[in-house]
From TrEMBL:
Keywords: Membrane, Transmembrane, Transmembrane helix. This is Urease accessory protein UreH-like transmembrane domain-containing protein. It comes from wastewater metagenome. The chain crosses the membrane at residues 12-37, 58-84, 90-110, 140-165, 171-195, 207-227. InterPro entries: UreH-like_TM_dom. The keyword NADP does not apply. Residues 10-219 form the Urease accessory protein UreH-like transmembrane domain. It holds the Pfam family DsbD_2. Signal peptide: none annotated.
């Protein structure tokens, strides 16, 4: 079910959405390593902490994507497979198109989804705070694994796409691609992160990448519609 175009769309959404991630998670990411003694706080050590944190964060996305994809596959088993497969691809294309619109124009279309996750986050947040200050890469990894559940409309939008991907493995793949897209801006620290964030926040860059995601979404949705119409009108009498 899931194709390369879906993974590319998820990757681009993560790349542009990383400016939003910097706002929500940047404070935690920049504080990594503050529990390390100053004389041991080398750039490479801090980079290792940031990398571990983000690997944990992407791993949490993969788990959530696998759950969403599994639920989507279970729902698919309850209806006609043929009609579900076509409908699934159309729905996934529409979700990608909506994400593209949000990325291109910075519209908060998915903000209501963020509010829906606050109850879950209220239970996880104390566990995440208990891991701070971070004094080892292992704790950074665990912190990222918990912080990945922070309510985020863009993440939830991608989870909808993961649910429509066709199974647990495909759902996890969508979320891993999205997470990898967010990593460059999140792993880089200091000036490099600021430069990356400013570049991705530029209107023309956001517009170009957002429109690319939008076009891929429309293409994904249009293929089964075209195939269905072709079969309807070109069927032998």
């Amino acid at each position: 079910m899931m194709g390369d175009i879906t993974l590319l769309g998820a990757l681009l959404a993560g790349l542009v959405g990383s400016t939003h991630c910097l706002g929500m998670c940047g404070g935690i990411a920049s504080a990594l390593g503050m529990g390390v003694a100053p004389e041991r706080r080398t750039p490479w050590r801090l980079f290792g902490y940031a990398l571990a944190y983000n690997v944990g964060r992407v791993a949490s996305y993969a788990v959530a994507g696998a759950i969403a994809g599994g639920i989507g596959l279970w729902l698919a088993s309850l209806v006609s497979l043929g009609s579900w497969t076509s409908g699934l691809r159309v729905a996934m294309g529409l979700v990608m198109a909506a994400i593209g619109v949000q990325v291109a124009f910075n519209w908060r279309l998915l903000a209501p989804l963020e509010r829906s996750g606050m109850r879950v986050w209220a239970r996880i947040a104390p566990l995440a705070r208990g891991l701070m200050p971070v004094r080892s890469p292992g704790r950074a990894l665990l912190l990222g694994g918990l912080w990945g559940w922070l309510p985020c409309g863009l993440v939830y939008g991608m989870l909808v796409a993961a649910a429509l991907a066709g199974g647990a493995v495909d759902g996890a793949g969508v979320m891993v691609a999205f997470g990898i897209g967010t990593m460059p801006a999140m792993v880089l620290t200091g000036t490099a992160a600021a430069v990356t964030g400013r570049l991705l926040a530029r209107g023309r860059v956001r517009l170009a990448l957002g429109v690319t995601i939008l076009v891929m979404g429309v293409w994904t949705a249009s293929v089964p519609i075209y195939s269905g119409l072709n079969a309807l009108y070109c069927a032998p009498a």
